[in-house]
Amino acid sequence: MQQNIERLHTALLGAFVVVALTLGYWQFFRQDEILARTTNPRLAEEAQRVVRGKLLARNGEALAQSRVTDDGVVREYRNPGVAAVTGYHSLRYGNSGIEERFDDYLRGARSVDPFSAFADQLFHRRTVGSDVVLTIDARVQQEAVDALGGEPGAVVALDPKTGAVLALASAPTFDPGNLDKAWASLVDNPGRPLFNRATQSAYTPGSTFKVVTAAAALDLGLVDPNVPFRCTTPISIDRLSIDCRNHAHLPTVNYREAFAWSCNRTFGLTGLELGTGRLQLADDLRAPYPWQGGIDGSARRLEEYAERFKFGQPIPFELPVARSQLKGDTQWYPSLLAQTSFGQGELSATPMLMALSAATIANGGVVPKPSLALEARAPSGAVTRLFDGGNLGRAIKPETAATMNEMMVLSVDTAYAQPARIPGVKVGGKTGTAEAGETGSTPHSWFVGYAPADNPRVAVAVILENRGSGTDFATPAAQRVMRVALDAYRPEGR
Amino acid sequence: MPIPFIEPKASAIADENRCMHAGEPVSVAASAARPAVRVPRLRPTELGLLLLALGILGLGLWQMDLARDGALAQRSVVALGAFGGAFLIMHAWLTIRRPFADQLVLPIAAAICALGQIVVARLIPELAVRQGMWVGVGAVALLGVVTVLPSIGWLRRYRYTFAALGVALVLSTFVLGVDPNGSGARLWLGAGGVYFQPSEVFKILLVIFFAAYLDEYRELLSYAGPRVGPLRLPPLPYLTPLLGMLALALLVVVLQRDLGAALLFFGVFLALLYAASGRALFVVLGVALFAVGATFLYQFFDHVQLRVDIWLDPWSRADTGGYQLVQGLTALAAGGIAGTGLTFGYPEYVPAAHTDFVIAAIGEELGLAGSLGVLALYVLLVHRGFHIALRTRDTFAALLAVGLTSVVGIQALVILGGTLKLMPLTGVTLPLLSYGGSSILANFILLGLLLSISHESEARLAAEH
């Protein structure tokens, strides 16, 4: 019986060894995989304990910061106006915007100092995340929010040389500090406050797109901008009449004036004739028009320039940017090409893309790469540079950009963009009044521009949805933003 | 009578092997007849190790107080005092009544109980006092066993009485059973906040009966029985009362959906059958029978089927039936090697972390180091139990020791295997560690019996030399 008992003992011992090995299996070998599962409530618990890094404006104001209270860590935002930049941080609904993009810095997961991270864990200290310094200027941001006045629309302001975004506003917006309570009503709100119009909404750009059409014609050398031509008779393409009523008081214009006064006939023709050797814009056009056989060539050139201005292209940015498009899946036909060329048709563009278009002119023809983050500052003091300051390639020649600059200044000085004038500063700009949605609805009010025109520090795009003409609404709003930016923002070395 | 253990330690060691004075009471008949036997006056190993276990409890409580309030709480001092008092009184009374008994069993039990106290104080502080009281009740039960039990042989004599008592207890739950904690099974007796689970005591009565019966028919089991080819089958007629008892026990607990208890009873029965007969064939037949029974249960009982399905894939049911198992495994993973430290983990996400899933709570906050430590304590306890069985010449006492030890070992394996996804989960407690009065009470009775067996055989061995 002794032997039986010994064998029994061995068997039980063996079973305990199996249990011990299994403990090691779960606690060591499968550890990381199990902890990463969504079934692990500790992920949320740990997130709740982290003192998240601040989101700072370039001049040090905190746009978002975390405060330790008796009830846990509370995320506070400067005001609801920063929501388009910061996004939200919610333990229940996750992160969005910059809170999402730089989450690993903010929650301290990317600590540059693994030793202090280990020490924090060992001594059960709260993890303190890195602060992220943004390119945003708090004053410009506030002015952009005020200029929108809570009505649907968006503002993007950036440094055309570096791509540093100074303001990014979208209205209507939400209070990221009160997200959890307001979530249901925010999601159901038909005004879609959670939707970032500045980067996500693609609108018909209207006449602001004439910047691209004109730049293409000038870059290809198809037109002498100084030669006057008579421009009064509407043209009819596929039974669509395109007229000159925008400059009814100026029967004879040169290309600069046609741009400044936003002549649809001139730019419809420009698009149709991009494939030809020289633009025929004067009144005495007779059928058969030269473009009727050459529409493919013209369309291809417009596509090429639109692409250089990043239509249909992904825009690298800290926030996701919707793709803008020159047209949908439709085949080109003459009236579509003409309408596209003056900013209607199937065109759609985000406020971010239109701001980049203005910035490209201001930047001598090179598309700047938009950026929202300057650097991350770890609690230890270590700084990681996040700003790259590169560009997205050259769109047009420097000479073309210089001519375009003059034309945009002319628009502000003498024509529809006059409300953008700032005393003592040369301003370049282009208005847009975009027909969108049902016929008869109030058009979108657009403005793109920059200042000072001789050494630009700020480029801006403003859209006010269904508000009316570009001149009356978006242009004065943009002027406010540019004026504050010139006052507040001094890029180093310029 | 002077209490020896409060003497200074140096003299205690010197005293250990001194001859007892004539006329000093010796509780065991075998040695009482021989006054010349050298009776150890003190149990210094037990005392030293008990103090170590108390140290574990003290450090654990202190650590949690520091983490929560920054200072040692008065209630922790009280808890430590009460806990220490209970074990030191047991130690003292063993020194008097069972001086020859194994000196490691009580400290191991104390260490396990101390961890149980820490876990309850960590998870549900309101229950800590209650758990402490149950340890006190357990201590009284152990003292009672040690005081009242005339000899191990006495248990054998009343084997049928014990069996009948056990069956009566468990059957009474069919009539009077209540379900005070909403577990879905009416396994408790009692009223007014004090509840008692008869199946916990039933397992001890069952082991006494099994051991006594197997001891009686041991020779027959080994050599008799019809031959089929090279195999000699069990002598079924002789086994009938035994199998009848087992079947009754299994039927009762299966009807009450207490599958953990059924598994435990069956496992202990097979262990005892093997220890008594040495016939591996019996174990094979038993396992085959078990497989048939399990298949039957799986086919006809939805709750058994669900348990097995959850065991096979808890992850896809992580929000429903698999929640407890998934959270338990996640807690273990969160602990890693060293654990988060007491109060710094989130074991409260594991349902029943203070009872069935106590290893998950320990694994999270004390890490693999802690969970393996717990395992080591059970391995040591089982080892001491088998050691006691091997040291005794009395075959009934040996079988009883094997049975009692198997109860602790197999019950620990059943619940650990369930929480670690080695086998389907069945709700039993981790002996001495989980919160639960009946379990602690029963296990202290069990310890008392084990220590009595040890004393009796060691005293006899000492007398022979």
What's a quick, concise take on this entry?
With 494 residues, chain A is an alpha+beta fold. Chain A has helices at residues 2-29, 31-35, 42-49, 83-86, 97-101, 103-106, 114-122, 138-148, 179-188, 197-200, 210-219, 255-260, 264-273, 291-308, 334-341, 351-362, 398-414, 470-488, and strands at residues 55-56, 62-69, 72-77, 89-90, 94-95, 131-134, 153-158, 165-171, 229-230, 235-237, 240-242, 252-253, 366-368, 373-377, 383-385, 391-394, 428-434, 444-451, 458-464.
Can you lay out the helices and strands and say which pair or pack?
The complex is a heterodimer of chains A (494) and B (465).
Chain A (H helix, E strand, L loop, with lengths): L1 H28 L1 H5 L6 H8 L5 E2 L5 E8 L2 E6 L5 H4 L2 E2 L3 E2 L1 H5 L1 H4 L7 H9 L8 E4 L3 H11 L4 E6 L6 E7 L7 H10 L8 H4 L9 H10 L9 E2 L4 E3 L2 E3 L9 E2 L1 H6 L3 H10 L17 H18 L25 H8 L9 H12 L3 E3 L4 E5 L5 E3 L5 E4 L3 H17 L13 E7 L9 E8 L6 E7 L5 H19 L6
Parallel strand pairs in A: 1-6
Antiparallel strand pairs in A: 1-2, 2-3, 4-5, 6-14, 7-8, 7-19, 9-12, 10-11, 13-16, 14-15, 17-18, 18-19
Helix pairs in contact in A: 8-18, 11-14, 11-17, 13-15
Chain B lengths: L8 H7 L13 H4 L11 H26 L4 H24 L7 H19 L4 H21 L3 H6 L1 H18 L12 E3 L2 E3 L1 H19 L1 H6 L3 E2 L2 E2 L3 H20 L3 H19 L2 H21 L1 H11 L10 H13 L22 H34 L3 H25 L17 H28 L1
Antiparallel strand pairs in B: 1-2, 3-4
Helix pairs in contact in B: 3-4, 3-5, 4-6, 5-6, 5-16, 6-18, 8-9, 8-11, 9-11, 9-12, 9-17, 9-18, 11-12, 12-13, 12-17, 13-14, 15-16, 16-17, 16-18, 17-18
